[in-house]
Amino acid sequence: MKDLLATKELSQLLGAEPVVCLKCLIGPPGGLNLRNVVWHGFAAQDEIPIEYVTLLLVLVVSLGKIIQNKLDASSLIHRPFVSFQNHETIINNVLPTEYSSSDIEEVVSIFEDSYFILPSILPILKSAVNLYKNRRYGHCLCLLLPALEHSLRRLYACCNGCHERILTAESATLYTTFDEILSPVLNDGITPNALADEIGISNMEMLMDILMYPEGPKLRDRISHGEVDLFTMSHALAGHVLSMCLSCSLLYCVNYHIKKDSIIDKVSSNGMKYVSLYHPSSLLHREMVSLVEELEKWKEIETFNLTEEDNDDGLPILCTTLHSNYPTALLQLMDSFPYFHTSDSCSNLLAISTSLSCFHGNSALLSLIEEVWGIPHNTLYSSRQKMETIGLLRRIINNLLNTVKQVADAARLRYNLYRRKELRSRQRNNFDRLLSSVGNYWSFIGVVFVLVCFSVAWSHDQSHDLSKMIKFLKKVLSFCENFSSQTSSAKNRWEESDKICSDCIEFIITSLSKIN
Asked: Do 11 and 19 meet the contact criterion of CB atoms below 8 Å apart?
């Protein structure tokens, strides 16, 4: 806001006087700075004089009139609102999101009983709950988020012994906001933030997911910067944030008895076992599941009726035989990561080397994902090296995902042309090379997939220096990027892709022993 108000373009359009009024009222910190004071939860319900609100309303109408007189309304380009549809699908029912009228009464009782909520903030929370009840979910969040920030700031200051930070909303001092409250260390850059120990890892993960992680909804930022249509928000996000507030409030309820199987019981139990949805490790998990789902679609290629008997165009029979180095690479991986010597998933993947079809390994890949992500680990405040490792693994998987889609699309297109007898000689040769390479492609993808799983498990051990692993993964990423490029619709270079697969498998076999 303060940066916008400092632009010369805004002054030229609106005029100096309106901009000065805006600077005095809503930013920068040298003025009243109402925008930050309110959005960061520094103000209780009756602490902002109604005159300020009235003046802001008059200013908004006046600015509209100025713009109307100076510009053609059709020339104003409005940035599209941010959509939360994908996020709503991800978070829906991870915590309870639907509250009945009787549930709402229970929610209010907890807020009244909890030391987490100051009496001066309680009216704001009650208004938020009423807005939820009336299905005004966006406006509900406008009140819930500042109230949550206010309560967490008190807790942060208390458990870290920095009580002077509670009321910091001064022009010359940095505000204590979610950025600082949820930071791994205090302002000195050394002392660990004690808030995670105070409210628990699961509650911190909830907060990080909704407020901080780059690929999460970043709700407070989006709403407070006007990027959201408040009237179209669904109950999922509002209910999720309400459950977050309840989960924190329940920690400081002394006299409240939770009824078994009630909505509050679900908030408590789900909150205690909450696992991050938007940490890069969690995103990698979902991307790997998507990769296996796309690999399953390769089975469609097996249905292409290209047998010896009815193949009068000289097209090849589909080759799903695994690459000759596939078992060697898997054994080398298992030797390099001893944790997986007794893994059933790895044994199943090794067993398919004698199978008639590479596609029999897809279910084993899914089992391996669940096995690896079932290993206890902490995602909160991961080290820089671990975050870099996870970032590389995500790029590897996304390149493979892109390749799998490209191969399926190319095979489907050429098969349809073949069925319509529209496949020219050069295209037949290209289709020939594609079908004869499918087994090798799957072998390469399977080996790299296992490598990614093992790398995730290995990175959980904080005693490991990940620098060699990072260098190794960068080289594997280079192979995967080339693989994706060569299989694109613009190139369709199947033999070159085949060589990339062979070279990468060989590289993995010869290089693994050097990273431990």
From this structure: yes
